[in-house]
Amino acid sequence: MGPCRITKKAKEGVCGATVDTIAARNLLRSLLGGGAAHSDHGREIVHALALAAEGTSSAYKIRGPEKLRKLAEEYGLAIDGRGDEEIARELADLLLVEFGKQKGTLANVRRAPQQQQKNWAAVNVTPRGVDREIVTGMHMTHIGVDNDPEHLLMGAVRAALADGWGGSMIATDVSDILFGQPRPLRSRVNLGVLKEDEVNLIVHGHEPTLSDVIVAAAQDPELLAQARAQGAKGINLAGICCTANEILMRHGVPVAGNFLQQELAVMTGVVDVMLVDVQCVFPAVTELQKCFHTKVISTSTKAKFPGATHIEFHEEKAMETAQAIIRLAIENFTHRDPAKVNIPSAQEPLVAGFTTEVVFEILGGRYRPSFRPLNDGIQTGRLRGVAGVVGCNNPKFPHDEYHLAMVKELIRNDVLVLQTGCSAIACAKAGLLAPEAAEKHAGRGLREICGAVGMPAVLHVGSCVDNSRILTACTELVKEGGIGDSIDKLPVAGAAPEWMSEKAISIGMYVVASGIFTVVNPALPILGSRYVEELLTKTFEKHFGATWAFEEDPIKAAHLMIDHIDRKRADLGLPLPMYEVPYAPKTEQNDVKAS
Predict the structure, then answer these.
(1) Please, what CATH class does the domain formed by 351-594 belong to?
(2) Helices and strands, counts by H and E, the chain
(3) Cut 0.85: pTM above it
């Protein structure tokens, strides 16, 4: 009896499950995998916070005390007369409860605008405990349980919201406490950041609990002396995927590349160790290492790779583990084959580290931080709107091209772009994350705003879990006022132009459910059911004020986003763009045609 497949031979399975049920059930199962990955990441970060509070690991300190106290106050914890460690201990206990919560709803739901909270309550999707939603969703998809397609999709929404406003948001907040709040900084990106005359260690994966410690260990004078003794001039760290984004935005560590470059990095012949933890790691890299001297070292208790050297990571011994791994890289430096060394020269400068708090200060100044200038820019038409372009690389499409085409089309039409994950790395490699790129690629209105404050037209806001920063930024736009009293009223849109992972399904679902119209490519795997497709692309508007859209062409997808932004501007009574734009508002285009 299975697995359930949609075929042309029958309208339903032997058990009676329809095409619509099968499509909705499969989508929910995939989404749960993505939500579990992000939320498990969050739980690990909170465990590390508890260790820092208890002082049981020398590697972890409270490096973001302002964020700690701000969060503690938000959650109703006492802060007056208490030390950071005491506050952190109580905060860690509170946040761990959020994962296994059995009564009530997630605390972070209170952060959302009132209209979003009402929308969720009306269709019973307000997220409860993070783990509870994952388990409930898995139960719903078991044979003979939930067979109502719309009800299955509402289960998907609730689990996704538990990820976005729960596990992922917790991961972002606690990372800022543990590793420090990111600030704008300059770095470099692409395979040219690897160095022939230094020990090269690449961190790859998603969890910063070890990679952040690796950054500190690589500066150890004793280890640097060992590297020089082996003939290396130093120890060079670089990143792949979201671990790269984590240590980029806090330490300026250069990025070797995104998802589809992990094998290419090994093929340079100079990677002495590729250190992997969880998520988005190709099993193929352990086979590829046999062709070169590279050692792939796995570290997670959740992920082993046949052929890799496994050094299990435990936070209590973080520094010792980091030092041992660097020693292996130093030793392996001597095994390089000079005939196989081939480092591409390509690299680009970038600026990263634009959190919600940073944008406050950049726009409003240190003494009067505010989103007011951003809202004013949107109200006057100098800035058309804001778009979040996020997600993966997908080998079905030419590498990075869909990200680049979409983002360039958005910014030349005066839409400010926020980015995370592999999409951010893609645009960084094209030079779009440098402030200078605004002058070349942005429309006049966006160019004026970027020039006034010295920021890029494309803002790097972090790793995949940091998509929660986009939610909090939208919430601040609502609080500031003048451009809508709920997220679904804002002139904003989202996109994942090359998505491929289950995490992207969860991200897209919580973004849509939070009121942000979202375009993805490829289409979600539900097109065998017209009913489920209509639920996602039409009916969701009634529930959440936003829908999904599927469009392969990145320019057409960008235009769908701009059309949506323009409709929201019109609904708010905002003027047309202040300056001439290549893709004019539909009303203006119609006037031209009519004349």
Answers:
(1) alpha beta
(2) 25, 14
(3) yes
